[in-house]
Amino acid sequence: MRLLHTADWHLGKTLKGQNLLEDQNFIINEIFKVIDEQKPKAILICGDIYDRAVPPVNAVELFNETLTRFAEKNLPTLIIAGNHDSATRLNFGSKLFERQNIFIAAKISDESKNIVLEDDFGEIYFSMIPFVDSEKIPAIISSFRSKIPREKRSVALAHVFLTGGIESESERKLVGTLTNVDANIFSDYNYVALGHLHRPQKFYSGSPLKYSFDEHNHKKSVTIVDIDCAGNVETKKIDLNPLHDVIVVEGKFNELIRRTKTEDYAQIILNDDVYIYETELLRNSFPHFLEVKRKNHLKSYDDTPINNFRKEDSISEQFAKFFESVTTEPLNNDELAAFESILKEIEREDRE
């Protein structure tokens, strides 16, 4: 049986204020092109359908249109909830969807059962495990496995963070290691289809789009999975081409404004001293730039030479030293006067 594995669509997400719904609609169309070319027998979507629990209306409409397209193809589609999804909202209408071969697992209950699909060689059992507390997963897997005949092929869908996985900035950070899961607990399955981590890696298809600038060097894809009659698995990545790529560009201001025009979403790092208002000239080359940084401002607060401060320095003198250490420019008279005016206002409010 051939499967298509994808995850982490995050419908409704923005990047630095840029609405990505048009990009998401485009990439879903690209996924359907892969479906037409690769002809999988089932689709696995492994969580984080939406970017937040209460998604915007247009994101819900896009997902509704997508489900309709799956139903029209009569293509079995297995969907689980991720940590960004609302289980209650995603579960709405799930019983009706089953009549169209669309199976949604947003919650785990005592009635949770494997989905069974068939190919020319017999049955394949699919255990659908939505996002749950990691300490519950061993018991959940044990329950699913108890309902799978020993000789049958099987696939697990889950939305988890496997120990050793590589994270990206765009994933919601979960506190501590309680969310970590050991890959060995899935060892009885022929294939494990996971969601949550956005970089394509073992067990993870990754997200179909780049959702943070630290993903600029990722190549986004979906995973095609072939399971033979004996349960042996072969996988391959099919690259996805976005409407707009996400790039990081560094250089001097006068060089960058002469660069060949690109439609990509850009983070621009200026490695010379220019003022922020001048950066609008960059739109000639980067009409969709989303962020501009100056390289000499990227150092952290911890890098600031605080030891230059003396106890006898006034607050204004300390601020002037701090300002120069961060910006590499001395505080001028107008800036100092503005700071002292604000300081006097704060002191007056404190007295009152």
Polypeptide structure, described:
The protein is an alpha/beta fold and 352 residues long. The protein has 3 domains: 2-239, Purple Acid Phosphatase, chain A, domain 2, CATH 3.60.21.10; 244-298, no CATH class; 305-352, no CATH class. It contains 8 helices and 17 strands. A 6-stranded mixed beta sheet has the order 6-5-4-1-13-14. Strands 7-8-9-12 form a 4-stranded mixed beta sheet, covered by helices on one side. Residues 298-307 have low confidence and may be disordered.
Entry keywords:
single chain, 352 residues, alpha/beta, Purple Acid Phosphatase, chain A, domain 2, six-stranded mixed beta sheet, four-stranded mixed beta sheet, 8 helices, 17 strands, 25% helix, 24% strand, elongated
Summarize the structure.
With 352 residues, the chain is an alpha/beta fold. It has 8 helices and 17 strands.
User: Which segments are poorly predicted (pLDDT under 50) over 5 or more consecutive residues?
Assistant: 298-307
What's the alpha carbon Rg, rounded to whole Å? 26 Å
CATH fold call of the largest domain: Purple Acid Phosphatase, chain A, domain 2
Q: How many angstroms does the end-to-end distance come to?
A: 75 Å
Number of strands: 17
Q: Main β-sheet: number of strands, strand sense, barrel status?
A: 6 strands, mixed
Q: Give the overall shape.
A: elongated
| The top level CATH class name of the largest domain | Alpha Beta
Query: How many helices does DSSP assign?
Result: 8
CATH architecture of the largest domain: 4-Layer Sandwich
CATH superfamily of the largest domain: Metallo-dependent phosphatases
